[in-house]
Design goal:
Chain lengths: 407, 150
């Protein structure tokens, strides 16, 4: 089935606006996605029709809110083929990663062990493990994926003492897709106790993903990058792990019984969800999941790969621009970071913004990686299902103007 | 410059004034000093703008100065304008100048007299319409202020 992109675009009110007198061309989807009207409406609907707290009232509003909120959890579970009680709501991917670090990492990793991550991790999956390494004394090892993911690089540093491999599924800078399935097979051959965490912030929104098939232990992502609202994210964890993990936040909802002497934790997933949650956020995330599934994850992925290949081909015609992660044979998602030989990303970003084109500039929360390219900032375009080939063309016309302006 | 699609975007041209682009392409006083009395590297980690400032000072008067670095057109041209403007000024005069540059960038009213005293630096005024870029424009000035106040 092919998707009618024009009709998809009509679902997004913001895509109709203009910026600096030009029609908005939104190419900053890796930072956050735009939201379809039904997602936005579902937030208003919750607050106008059944606003109330969840899991604690016998009144109608509370029951309606609880049902909608839990139904959204069910939808998210289905999206990644996980059991419902293994889906924990958090604030964002960052909090999901921190939850694993604090609840599992601090209590299960010892000084003689090691953690493996890539050199391209987002700060949320880098600083977090750096801290765990400092606190537990374990070693933090890096796989260099600047030229693509090489299984042999993982093989070389993986050993019996590897407690965790925490790896991005799609790099938010390089766009490379890491071969999670093969990585899991290799790890399982080496050490059945090594846990595998996947940072899926850039993959779950764009491609089909099945945690059961992949056989991974933890998966983290944010709703705001998948057409949902900000302030809500997801951690998936394997049940036997979650059951044995201690919560790291305490309060209401996460307990089943409290006395002055102690407390008993609630069942999964509530054990990890202390306090009144982001109810509107959860409900509207469920609506976003429905919306994505209605288009079809396969269709979304295919369209974005097509746009990316088209854009990479065009980039190759600009000799002063370099794409970071220029292994063009590597599987990649809809993220392209680039630098110009002499023009700073800021100046590029400003010129593009004047033409209504939104791109990201800066270190992309991956400072050491961007620095390894001899620069402290890069520009980045990133696509979603509502982007068109025409928008890619407009982007490249604007890129020409940038050179005309500064050179 | 063939600016077909960009023609008519006046505030863009105000920010990237011809003086600014000239300083960006040909920065002044880049050459490192042989034996600087004071030096400081300043940077803005968020966008990666960097400037190294060196100066010689005699009886409270800046006798020589060098500014070099890497970064966007605004940070680098502003650094170059700075390099051109403060030689032979006293510390007090420089601090006063920095106060006025800041006022201009914030869009505060400044007298004709002050405006005249800014000379080419006035070319930076267009940046005030681009709030996220004001930091770039002030990078060198803030660094210089720290350097001579310490
Ligand atoms: C690969 C990757 N991981 C993690 C994150 C963190 O997401 P959030 O800021 O929503 O927690 C991002 C967001 O930019 C990302 O791109």
């Amino acid at each position: 089935m092919s998707v009618n992109i024009d009709s998809v675009r009509k679902d997004f009110p913001i895509l109709g606006r203009s910026v600096n007198g030009k029609k908005l061309v939104y190419l900053d989807n890796a930072a956050t996605s735009q939201k379809p009207k039904i997602v936005i409406d579902s937030i208003t609907e919750y607050y106008t029709k059944y606003n109330s707290n969840v899991h604690r009232g016998v009144h109608t509003l509370s029951m309606e809110a609880t049902e909608a909120y839990e139904n959204a959890r069910f939808k998210v579970a289905k999206l990644i083929n996980a059991p419902e009680d293994c889906i924990i709501w958090t604030r964002n991917a960052t909090e999901s990663l921190n939850l694993v670090a604090s609840s599992w990492g601090l209590n299960n990793i010892s000084a003689e062990q090691n953690i493996i991550i890539t050199n391209a991790e987002h700060h949320s999956n880098l600083v977090t493990w750096q801290q765990i390494s400092k606190k537990t004394g374990c070693e933090l090892r890096y796989i260099d994926i600047s030229n693509g993911f090489e299984m042999s690089n993982l093989k070389n540093i993986l050993d019996k003492n590897t407690a965790l491999v925490s790896i991005t599924h799609i790099s938010n800078v390089l766009g490379y897709v890491t071969p999670i399935s093969d990585i899991v097979s290799l790890i399982k051959k080496m050490n059945l106790d090594t846990k595998i965490l996947v940072d899926a912030a850039q993959s779950v929104p764009h491609m089909p993903l099945d945690v059961n098939d992949l056989g991974i232990d933890f998966l983290a992502f944010s709703a705001h990058k998948m057409m949902g609202p900000t302030g809500i994210g997801v951690l998936y964890g394997k049940k036997e792990l979650l059951l044995n993990m201690e919560p790291y936040m305490f309060g209401g909802d996460m307990i089943i019984e409290v006395s002055y002497e102690g407390a008993k934790w609630n069942e999964l997933p509530y054990k990890f969800e202390a306090g009144t949650p982001n109810i509107a956020g959860g409900i509207s995330t469920g609506v976003a999941v429905d919306y994505l599934l209605n288009i079809g994850m396969e269709n979304i992925w295919k369209h974005e790969v097509d746009l990316t290949n088209y854009a990479l081909e065009k980039f190759s015609q600009f000799k002063n621009f370099t794409v970071l992660g220029n292994n063009l044979n590597h599987p990649r998602g809809g993220v392209i970071s680039f630098v110009h030989k002499s023009i700073h990303p800021h100046d590029i970003g400003t010129i593009l913004d004047k033409q209504g084109i939104a791109i990201r500039t800066g270190h992309h929360c991956a400072m050491p990686l961007v620095r390894s390219y001899g620069t402290s900032a890069a520009a980045r375009v990133s696509f979603y299902i509502y982007n068109t080939f025409n928008e890619v063309d407009l982007f490249f016309e604007a890129i020409k103007d940038v050179e005309d302006y500064f050179l | 410059m063939s600016m077909s699609r960009l023609s008519g975007v006046d505030d863009l041209n105000e920010m990237y004034e011809s003086i600014i682009l000239d300083h960006y392409r040909n920065p002044r006083n880049l050459k490192k000093l042989a034996s600087p009395d004071l030096e400081k590297d300043v940077n803005n980690p968020f966008c990666g703008d960097e400037l190294s400032i060196q100066l010689n000072i005699e009886n409270d008067v800046v006798t020589d100065l060098s500014v070099s670095g890497n970064g966007c057109a605004i940070s680098q041209s502003s650094g170059s304008l700075l390099a051109e403007s403060v030689i032979n000024l006293t510390k007090i005069q420089i601090l006063e100048l920095i106060v006025n540059v800041r006022k201009m960038m914030r869009g505060e009213d400044i007298s004709e007299e002050i405006r005249d005293s800014l000379g080419d630096i006035e070319a930076l005024e267009g940046v005030k319409k681009f709030p996220v870029r004001i930091k770039c424009a002030l990078l060198g000035w803030t660094g210089l202020e720290d350097l001579i106040q310490d």
